[in-house]
Structures are given as C-alpha cells and as structure tokens.
Specification:
The complex is a heterodimer of chains A (115) and B (111). Chain A is an all-beta fold and 115 residues long. Chain A is 0% helix and 46% strand. Chain A has strands spanning 5-7, 10-13, 19-24, 31-37, 43-50, 65-69, 75-79, 88-95, 105-106, 110-114. In chain A, strands 2, 4, 5, 8, 9 and 10 form a 6-stranded mixed β-sheet that branches. Chain A starts with a strand and ends with a strand. In chain A, 37% of the residues are buried. In chain B, strands 2, 4, 5, 9, 10 and 11 form a 6-stranded mixed β-sheet that branches. Chain B has a 5-stranded antiparallel β-sheet with strand order 1-3-8-7-6, with no helix packed on it. Chain B starts with a strand and ends with a strand. The chains are: A mainly beta (115), B mainly beta (111).
Chain lengths: 115, 111
C-alpha cells in the first residue's frame, strides 16, 4: 500500500486480557516507531526499530509492553494483562532514513479501550 | 528533560482569518522541529520540518518559524479555511534522536 496501515482500527478488551496491535510500514522504510496518545495529551514515544539493530525500548512504560518487528516489515505491539490506564490511541510511524531526522509517516492508529 | 508546550490548547476563528499557533520547548539542543496535523480517525500528516540551522519553512498557506535560542516556534496559517480544522501538533527531535511532542492545538475554522 501507499501508506502506513494499522490494525485493528478499534479494539475493546477487558482488563487483564492480552492484546496485539499490528503495523504495516511503508515498503522500504527501515525505521519504525510506536507511540501512544492518551486523550487530550501529546504523543508518547514507546519503541523504535531501525533495520536489524537492537530496538530502542526506552519508552515502554512497563514490562507488560513488548514489540517485535520482522526484518524491515510488519511490527506487532503486544500489551499483556491490560489495565484501564492502557486505554489510548496507539500510533505507528515509519521513515526511510536511519535516524529520527527524517520525516515520519503515520498510520491511522488503533484506538484501544480497556474496560 | 525536554518538554514541549503548545498554546493555545484550542482556537476557534472565522474563515478567512490569518492565525498563529505557538510551540515552545525547554531545551534548545534539538536537531529539528516538525509541525503535524491530526484529523480524527486518520493518521498524522507532517506539514513542515525545520532543521535546527533553519529559521523558517513555507508550504502554501503555511509558514513555520524557529527561534532555537529562545525555544520557540510558530505556525502561521494564512487565509484560513474550514478544511484547516484539525489538531496541530508540534514535535522536536531531541539530542537522543527521539521526537518529543506537544499536546496539540485544536483548531476550528468557522464557515
């Protein structure tokens, strides 16, 4: 596809359940980012993948959060034992360059609601 | 720790007016500053990117300025249109190559 896609667009889950969010970056983009946006707040950086390098996980809020990326393609963000505080929009972005200095292209996001 | 603030949080103006959105950051050690637009149910769209060595960037009716020493950026929108209604986000790329985001300004252009 022409842009970054994410699935599902909406996810409602019960507290304590695990969820998996998916991101398909733009083909050929080596960098991939996950962000979280709580209602009325700015984006929070979660994790950054660059090629085959070890990911930058410095933004993950707890060990319940993890992410994987297969080569330079699809990425999944997994949240285990979800809490109500995890409710937010999760945004994925990709860029063509090796650093954050290049323009990031964002997907439409996944809105997660934890009941 | 880098912090980014956007003022105002919300703005409503009549169609046709020129307007300015403000962004401030606490640490001048940045690589660049970006302005994004966020529409409901859609992804973010990058509007303008200003490198730390630049003072401004222009795209159509949009002009963004950067004063790194004072930690300020403005996004100027000329001749506003209802289609400009969206949330505008400012983000700086800090010395650790992480994007630090403001909370955004929600703009409503009234027909």
């Amino acid at each position: 596809g022409a842009g970054v896609s994410q699935s599902p667009s909406n996810k409602v889950t019960e507290k304590g359940k695990d969820v998996e969010l998916r991101c398909d970056p733009i083909s050929g983009h080596t960098a991939l980012y996950w962000y979280r946006q709580r209602l009325g707040q700015g984006l929070e950086f979660l994790i950054y993948f660059q090629g085959n390098s070890a990911p930058d996980k410095s933004g993950l809020p707890s060990d319940r959060f993890s992410a994987e990326r297969t080569g330079e393609s699809v990425s999944t963000l997994t949240i285990q034992r979800t809490q109500q505080e995890d409710s937010a929009v999760y945004l994925c972005a990709s860029s063509s360059g090796p650093s954050g200095a290049d323009t990031q292209y964002f997907g439409p996001g996944t809105r997660l609601t934890v009941l | 720790k880098q912090e980014v603030t956007q003022i105002p949080a919300a703005l409503s103006v009549p169609e046709g007016e020129n307007l300015v959105l403000n962004c401030s950051f606490t640490d001048s050690a940045i690589y660049n500053l970006q302005w994004f637009r966020q529409d409901p149910g859609k992804g973010l769209t990058s509007l303008l990117l200003i490198q730390s060595s630049q003072r401004e960037q222009t795209s159509g009716r949009l002009n963004a300025s950067l004063d790194k020493s004072s930690g300020r950026s403005t996004l100027y929108i000329a001749a506003s249109q209802p289609g400009d209604s969206a949330t505008y986000l400012c983000a700086v790329l800090d010395s650790n190559y992480q994007l630090i985001w403001g909370a955004g300004t929600k703009l409503i252009i009234k027909p």
